[in-house]
Amino acid sequence: HEQPIIGMKNCHELCAGEVCGREWSAREWFVVRKAEVQMSGDGVLLPCIRMGVEAREQRVGPNGLEDVATTKVTHPLVKYAELFTHNFDLIAERKSAIYHLRELAKASVL
To answer: Which of 29, 35, 54, 77 is deepest in the core (most CB within 10 A)?
Structure first.
C-alpha cells in the first residue's frame, strides 16, 4: 500500500519475529496524547494538541474479536503506529483526512 511519506514502511514490511509466521489481526486508533488551551497576548484562545496512533492486537474471544490487554512492542502494527505518531504533523500536511481529524481534535479541546 502507498504510504503518506516516501520511504515509510507499511506494517507488513515491518513484520519480523513470531507474529509474521502466523495470521494475525490488529487495529489502530487515533488518540489525543496531550491537549491544552493557551491564550495569546490579545486574549485569543489557541488549542494545542499532540496526537498519536495506538495499536492493539486482537484475538478471537467469546464475543468475537477482542483487544489483547498488552500488545508487544515488536508487533508490526505497533511499530507502524510509532512511525505514524512520529510523523503525525507531516502526514497531516499531506493527507486531508488526517489534517481534518487533527482540526476536529483541536475544536473538541475548546
So the answer is: 77
Q: Are 36 and 45 in contact (CB under 8 A)?
A: no
Cβ density class 76-101: b for 16+ within 10 Å, e for less = bbbbbbbbbbebbeebbeeeeebeee
Residue 11 near residue 28, CB atoms below 8 Å = no
Question: Edge-to-edge strands of the sheet including 64-67?
Answer: 25-39, 45-61, 64-67
- Helix, strand, or coil (residue 105): helix
Supply the pTM of this predicted model. 0.84
Q: Give φ, ψ of 101 to 5 degrees.
A: -65, -45
pLDDT tens-digit profile of 48-63?
A: 999 999 998 899 999 9
Strand boundaries in the chain, DSSP class E: 25-39, 45-61, 64-67
